[in-house]
Amino acid sequence: MKTSELFDTPPILEQRLGSDLFADIPQEPGIYRFYDENDTLLYVGKAKNLRRRLFTYKRARPGRTSRKESKLISRIHRFEFDILDSEEEAILHENRWIREHRPEYNHANKHTETYYFITVQRSVDALTFGLSMNPSGQLFPENEKPLYQNFSPALNKVLDSKTYGCFKGHRSVRISLGSLLQLIWMNEFNSISPHFLPVQLSRNLTPMRFCLPLQHLPRSKTDKLGVLIDHWFLGNSMDLLEYMKEKIQPMGDSTFAKKFIDENFEFLESYFHRNLYRYRLMREMKENSESHLIDQDELDDLITRFNNNQQYITAN
Predict the structure, then answer these.
(1) Which of 155, 132, 144 shows the shortest CA–CA distance to 213?
(2) Mean pLDDT of 291-308
(3) CA-to-CA dists, residue 180 to 66, 129, 183, 244, angstroms
(4) How confident is the model at residue 178 (pLDDT cuts 50, 70, 90)?
(5) Domain segments of the chain: what residues?
(6) In the beta sheet, which residues pair with residue 121?
(7) What is the SS3 assignment for 112?
(8) Least C-beta-crowded within 10 Å: which of 56, 175, 210, 302?
């Protein structure tokens, strides 16, 4: 038997702060914040019922809580709470506090995420794809221009340029773009084997910028490809994949090539439904519906609202 079970130890927080401090906590949704003796923010939490949630801390006794919670409680010298209109608003406010202040005892939403914007620039005989962490869409920063001195002169004759995003997730965004570029390359050069891909597209993660020549396509097909790519990144349709499926067919009994192509298509179909299509639905929830771009902080809030709406739809 544990020592804590032999003696009726009093609740630590109630003993330190007193019962009166908990008396007026409402039974409404909101967020709460714990501070240490130096007024440093330790933890931010959300609650559907603030009174019920904070009373679990008030009643916590030594030996009857997790080690992490015991350490947190031992350092709490005061707390604050904000009443909010709904549980969803509580989640949004919790996310914002954690992102801005990064409290020591919070782990979810605390670490810096990667948010990518994807720019597609269409020139006379090339498509240039760029990844960046800002929505400027500038593919060739002044301080990096020497890196692109071997690119086609046609890159200077830009027909149009469009930026999409932001998209959350370092690995998933770069791998999906890499898979897409591999298939577009194979489609453009009638390559039925991944062995002939350029080295930049053979790596695990796609490069931050990549120029894809379109020398084999007439202008009408180049325009069509541009439209299909636009609908893809906007989450409107998967017609781009259907377009390429008709063109990319491995010859003979090349099991490796067939598996490589099939896996790329399967991955991109899944990525479209799990990400691009969901982003399209989230854009419809934006306050500013005129722009198809989503800011980094705005995306986190939209993800919260979207997930809550999906849970409500499922429950009903």
Answers:
(1) 155
(2) 84
(3) 46, 11, 5, 10
(4) very high
(5) 11-101, 115-308
(6) 128, 161
(7) coil
(8) 56
pLDDT of res. 215: 66
* pLDDT grade for 144, boundaries at 50, 70 and 90: very low
pLDDT band at 4 (very low <50, low <70, confident <90, very high): very low
DSSP bridge pairs for 127: 122, 212
Strand partners, 46: 31
Tell me the residue type at 76. Answer: I
Candidates 176, 157, 164; CA nearest to 230 is 164
CA torsion sign for 297, 307, 235, 191 is positive
CA distance 231 to 227: 6
Cα–Cα distance between 3 and 260 in angstroms, integer? 61
C-alpha dist (Å) from residue 99 to 86, 131, 132, 299: 20, 23, 21, 13
Q: Strand 126-132 vs strand 158-168: parallel, antiparallel, or unpaired?
A: unpaired
What residues does 158 pair with on adjacent strands? 123
Strand-pair partners of 78: 35
CA–CA dist 81, 25 (Å, integer): 9
How far is it, in rounded angstroms, from Cα 179 to Cα 264? 6
d(CA 97, CA 109) in angstroms, rounded, equals 10
Q: Could you identify the residue written with the tokens 């019922």?
A: 49
Mean pLDDT of the 180-188 span: 91
Peptide bond into 211 cis (omega under 30): no
Q: pLDDT-derived band of residue 90, with 50, 70 and 90 as boundaries?
A: very high
* Contacts for 165 with CB less than 8 Å, ≥ 6 apart: 115, 116, 117, 118, 135, 293, 294
In CATH, what class is 11-101?
alpha beta
For residue 262, name the pLDDT band (cuts at 50, 70, 90).
very high
DSSP per-residue string spanning 152-167: -GGGGSEEEEEEEEEE
